[in-house]
Amino acid sequence: QVQLVESGGGTVQAGNSLRLSCVASGRTSSTSVMGWFRQAPGKEREFVGAIRWNAGTTYYRPVVKGRFSISRDSAKNTVDLQMSGLTPEDTAVYYCAARTYLSDRSQIYLSPPDYNYWGQGTQVTVSS
Fold first, then answer.
1. How far is Cα 53 from Cα 100, in angstroms, rounded to an integer?
2. What backbone phi and psi angles, to 5 degrees, belong to 5?
3. How far is CA 128 from CA 16, 88, 91, 107, 122, in A?
4. Cα atoms in the Cβ-side hemisphere of radius 13 Å centred on 117
5. Residue 94 to residues 44, 61, 102, 104, 114: CA-CA distances in angstroms?
6. Which one, out of 4, 57, 78, 117, has a CA that is 20 to 30 A from the CA of 25?
């Protein structure tokens, strides 16, 4: 079991920045990929970005690439999502997710079913 707790959400004006954090506990040694997803009201949960836990390589949804950045601290078992240049379209509940299934280094994991542990989510609201 892996437990995930997000923090750092809030309300900001468009153009500003926000940093979300996710703390992992439990059997974190089995984690291969950590992802961030978001879900706006009335919409499906969508991939934002992810980081391969051991290699530290990242990949992002095209619309956030260059604005969002994911980093991890292996010693603290934390994964951060730094968001800048926020727009009202970024308003959503943001979720941290962990994948402990066997992972292929050449595979990019973009779908919610690719991850088997989830945090409770943190609200991000961007006002215009």
1. 10
2. -130, 120
3. 11, 6, 11, 37, 20
4. 22
5. 12, 14, 25, 25, 17
6. 57
3-state secondary structure 4-65: EEEECCEEEECCCCEEEEEEEEECHHHCCEEEEEEECCCCCCEEEEEEECCCCCEEECCCCE
Q: Along the 128 residues of the chain, how does pLDDT read in single tens digits?
A: 999 999 999 999 999 999 999 999 998 888 999 999 999 999 999 999 999 998 899 999 999 999 999 999 999 999 999 999 999 999 999 999 999 988 887 888 999 999 999 999 999 999 99
The structure tokens 């609201």 sit at: 125
pLDDT score for 49 = 97
What is d(CA 94, CA 60) in angstroms, rounded to the nearest whole number?
14
